[in-house]
Amino acid sequence: MIKKYILICLCLLYIVGCEKHETTKFKLSKENCDNNWAICMILPDKKIEITKTQPVKIAVLDSGIEQNIPQIKKHIKNTYNAIDRTSETKPFFPHGTMIASILTNTQIKNTKIGITENINLYDVQVLDEHGKAILLIL
């Protein structure tokens, strides 16, 4: 399931870059892959092309995103709790936060995790404390 989310996000990032923009290209080294194996798994040719565009807008529909991580928080533009229909999300599980850290260019210790700094996140909590969603809400 996570691979589908990552693939969708990468496709969206690629599609947004269809106009002429400043582009930076680089190839990941073995050390990069040792430090961040997830990126190397989804980019088997180890090549990254970064295009400067308007920020990509992505809604993370999950268990909520932890708001106390500054590297992620700066990208969150709005929150919505579909369970109680408020703007306050309460992440019960770390999954939404992990997805957000993959999308944003977060650094943990000496390891960069993530795809881009050029992103606006919308935190939409659709899973309750049991990890369940009510389909009528969605």
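(the above was protein one; protein two follows)
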Amino acid sequence: MSKEAKELIKEALKNQAKSLDLSNCDLEELPKEIGALIQLEDLRLSGNQKVSDLSPLANLQNLNTLDVSNT
């Protein structure tokens, strides 16, 4: 996971963000920490072409928008 993605996830956890944009972060897989962001309503993952397993998102019950274009 890129340093940028780690920082964005850390900030989202700290601030209980409702939106998170990890587009074009060169993710190869979704980090398990993403599953702790249960308050997320909007998640952008576009452009992370190596991500194929979305199971870490299973607990995100408040998620209304998920962008996985070009992923």
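Reviewer note on protein two: Strands lie at 19-21, 42-44, 65-67.
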